[in-house]
């Protein structure tokens, strides 16, 4: 694979763009697919990996650049892995607060010992839209779901995700610390090794 100096991120999420740019450092310029298209492909895959590949191919097609897609979400043990690939749309697209409220309601009577969960990240990198050899890297971040939100940082389910190794919610971590511990950080560390950026 030729050296990457620029790629397009298959996301309209400014928080995700900022996080991934910080993880990749200055060697690679990360641009948002929003610069090239407002259309988002339908996520028809049945797994994080399938959806990441779909999004990466779309971003490469509309931008003409190598594309990186991140499909990530929260898998809660007591809910059979839900919200899973529907994490961002768990509450029918009503946003983070609604997603968090729905999750808390679903776990209302579940004791602490059974509230295990993991953030999951699947990264897919394609050199072009029809790349037959996408690079796939996955990361898991294990924790459990709190009974109420804590912290002001992060986004998504961060206020409900207890990080055992730091004894706080993900939303209470400094962004630099989260960028070292998270599911996305773990997947990105593997990707950087594959790209010889580590």
Put the structure in a nutshell:
By secondary structure, the protein is α/β, with parallel strands linked by helices. The chain has one domain (6-195): Alpha-Beta Complex (Maf protein). It has 5 helices and 7 strands.
Describe the overall structure.
- This protein has 198 residues and is an alpha/beta fold.
- The chain has a single domain (6-195), classed as Alpha-Beta Complex (Maf protein).
- Helices cover 29% and strands 23% of the residues.
- It contains 5 helices and 7 strands, in the order E-H-E-H-E-H-E-E-E-E-H-H.
- The protein has a 7-stranded mixed β-sheet.
- Helix 4 crosses helix 5 (183-194).
- It is globular and about 50 Å long.
- It starts with 5 loop residues before the first strand and ends with a helix.
| Annotation field: number of helices | 5
Q: Report the C-alpha radius of gyration, rounded.
A: 17 Å
The gross shape turns out to be globular
Q: What is the end-to-end distance?
A: 16 Å
Can you identify the CATH class? Alpha Beta
Q: Which structural class should the secondary elements be placed in?
A: alpha/beta
Total beta strands: 7
* Assembly status: single chain
Strand content: 15-25%
* Largest beta-sheet characterization: 7 strands, mixed
Looking across the biggest beta sheet, what order are the strands in? 2-1-3-4-5-6-7
Return the domain count.
1
CATH architecture: Alpha-Beta Complex
Order of helices and strands: EHEHEHEEEEHH
Determine the fraction of residues in helical runs and give it as a percent range.
Answer: 25-40%
Summed over residues and divided by their number, the pLDDT gives a mean of 93
Which blocks of ≥5 consecutive residues have pLDDT under 50?
Answer: none
CATH domain fold name: Maf protein
Enzyme class: hydrolase
Family: Belongs to the HAM1 NTPase family.
Protein name: dITP/XTP pyrophosphatase
Binding site for Mg(2+): 42, 71
């Amino acid at each position: 694979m030729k050296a990457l100096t620029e790629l397009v991120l298959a996301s309209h999420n400014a928080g995700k763009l900022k996080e991934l740019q910080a993880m990749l450092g200055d060697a690679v310029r990360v641009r948002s697919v929003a610069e090239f298209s407002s259309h988002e492909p339908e996520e028809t895959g049945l797994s994080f990996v399938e959806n990441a590949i779909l999004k990466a191919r779309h971003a490469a097609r509309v931008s003409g650049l190598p594309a990186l897609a991140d499909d990530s979400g929260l898998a809660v043990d007591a809910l059979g892995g839900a919200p899973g690939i529907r994490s961002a749309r768990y509450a029918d697209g009503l946003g983070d607060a609604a997603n968090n409220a729905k999750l808390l309601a679903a776990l209302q009577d579940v004791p602490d010992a059974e509230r295990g969960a993991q953030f999951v990240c699947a990264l897919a990198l394609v050199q072009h839209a029809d790349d037959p050899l996408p690079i796939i890297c996955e990361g898991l971040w294990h924790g459990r779901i709190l009974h109420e939100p804590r912290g002001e940082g992060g986004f998504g389910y961060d206020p409900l995700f207890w990080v055992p190794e730091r004894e706080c919610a993900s939303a209470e971590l400094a962004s630099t610390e989260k960028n070292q511990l998270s599911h996305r950080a773990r997947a990105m560390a593997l990707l950087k090794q594959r790209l010889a950026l580590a």
